Amino acid sequence: MDPKIQAVLDEYEARAAKEAALMSDPNRRRDEMLLPVGAATASLMSTIIKEGKMRSILEVGSSYGYSTIWLAEAARATGGKVISLELHANKAEYARDRLAKAGLDGFVEFKIGDALETLRTLPGSFEFVLLDLWKNLYVPCFELLYPKLATGGIILADNMLFPETAIPDANAYRERVRAAKDMTSVLLSVGSGIEISRYR
Question: Quick one: 129 exposed, middle or buried, by C-beta within 10 A (0-12, 13-18, 19+)?
Fold first, then answer.
């Protein structure tokens, strides 16, 4: 890993470790926390992108940019680009700053606003999609993403097994994606649980 990128990832992981101790604080709002996919999931998605030589990459839910760093590093390796959707401008700004520190800012385009509204107008096709926003939005996002997947395109959906409060929405997503024509899908107990789904 490029030392500049690793230094930024180390900063993220130090912040995530501190925040883990605050998860039970009822005064701590979820939007203030990183809630990252974690190194195991991030490393796996990076490997999928690089080995598949995927260039059109979509992130639905940037948050503060931990996964965006990993996606951008993979995009640099394949000559690709990341489009990252985020509702909150302050989170995207935080992510932009970290991308610049890592030397990866040229590989990501942020689109700020409601993900569903953005997806309705966003042209495809996408070879890799990371789905990581509020879980009740997974099924509506899939309905909009499905027609925009490239042949062989992969969706990686996070938080399939944890937190427990997300499991009903996670199960609804898994049921929907597995019912879709030309999709194959598997649940892996990596990180907080991921569903990896491939189109054709």
Answer: buried
